[in-house]
Amino acid sequence: MAAGSSFGEGEPALLLDDKGRKYLLRLRSTGTFQYHRGSLAHADIIGRPEGTRFVSSKGAPLIGVRPRLADYILKMRRGPQVVYPKDLGPILVYADIRPGATVVEAGTGSGAVTMALVRAVGLTGRVISCDSREDHAGRGRTNIKRYFGSIPEHLDLRVGDVREIVAEVEHDRLVLDLAEPWQVIPAAAGTLRTGGLVAAYVPTVPQVDKIHSTLASSDRFVDVETFEILLRTWHVAGRSVRPDHGMVGHTGFVTTARCVAPPEDTIVHEESMHSYTARNAGG
Ligand SMILES: C[S@@+](CC[C@H](N)C(=O)[O-])C[C@H]1O[C@@H](n2cnc3c(N)ncnc32)[C@H](O)[C@@H]1O
After folding, report:
1. Do 51 and 152 fall within a single domain?
2. Protein residue with its CA nearest to atom 5 in ligand 1
3. Which of 28, 132, 211, 264 to pair with 228, CA 20 to 30 A apart?
4. Is the C-beta atom of 136 inside 6 A of ligand 1?
C-alpha cells in the first residue's frame, strides 16, 4: 500500500464520516475534534498519512484526507460571497489561466478565486490580487494563509482600487469579481497584454449587458463570450439512481474577452495598401 503524505501541524484536514458528512479542521497538537458522535484528538491525526481511517471516542468511523480546494471554499469562513467551485473551474479554463501567467484579480473578497488562480499560474506565474476594502482583504488573507500554510511567494495581496493597479502592472489576464467590472476595462486596455484575456463574473443580466456594451465601445476587445454553468449532482444509492432534489439554480455569469492591438497597428499586405488606406480615410 502506498501511503499519502503525512499531516502536519497547522494544516487543514478534512474528516469524512460514514454518512457522507465532511468536517474541516486546522490541525493543532493540543486540539480536539468534537461532534455528535464523539471526539478525536488532533494529535492522533498529525504525523499520520492522508487517507488514514480512525474511530472516534464513541466508536464512529472517520477518514482523514486533505480538503480539495472545492471542499475548503465551501467550508472556510466567508465574508464576501465566494465564487462557487462549479464556476471556478470554467473561469480558469475559459480565461486560460496557465502556468507562468501574470494575473491581476479583484476583489480578493474571501479568497476563493485567488486560491484557484495561485494554483493555476504555478511558481513561474504571479497573481496580484486586490480589494478596496481592508476588512475583506483581511478575510481573504486569513483564508489563503490557512489553506496554503503561508501566503505563497508568487501572490501579491494588496488593499486598493483595481483601476489603479491595472494601470500600473502589465498583465496577461484580468479576473474581475466585483459589482462594476466595466469600470476597470478602460484602464486595463493600456496594460493588459495583447492576446491576453479578461474574465468578469457577475450575478445579473443588466451587469452582463453593461460589460458587453463597454467592451464593444472599445476597439481593443474581441471574441466576447458569456456563459453560465448549471451543475446537477446525483443521488446514487443501490437502485435509487436519480438527480438530487436540490440544485443551485443560479450563481453568476462569466464573460470573457480578448485584448488585441489597436486598429491603427494593423499590418496591411502591400497589395491591399491602397484600398485599405482609402477605406480608412473614408474614401
Ligand atoms: C464578491 S466579492 C469577491 C469574492 C471573491 N471573488 C471570492 O470568491 O472570494 C467582491 C469584492 O470586490 C471588492 N471591490 C469592489 N470594487 C472594487 C474595486 N474597484 N477594486 C478592488 N476591489 C473592489 C469588494 O470590496 C468585495 O470584497
Report:
1. no
2. 109
3. 132
4. yes
Q: Are 201 and 253 in contact (CB under 8 A)?
A: yes
Length of the chain: 283
Query: Which atom belonging to ligand 1 lies closest to the Cα atom of 183?
Result: 19
In a domain, 248, yes or no: yes
Look at residue 5 and tell me if it is in a domain: no
Residues 205-240: tens digit of each pLDDT: 999 999 999 999 999 999 999 999 999 999 999 999
In this structure, the answer to whether residues 39 and 22 fall within a common structural domain is: yes
Nearest CA to ligand 1 atom 19: 161
Instruction: Give 147-193 pLDDT, tens digit per residue.
Output: 999 999 999 999 999 999 999 999 999 999 999 999 999 999 989 99
Q: Is 134 inside any structural domain? A: yes
Report yes or no on 118 lying in a domain.
yes
Per the structure, the complete domain to which residue 181 belongs is given by: 71-265
**Residue 146: what are its φ and ψ, rounded to 5°?**
-65, -35
Looking at the fold, whether 75 and 181 belong to one and the same domain comes out as yes
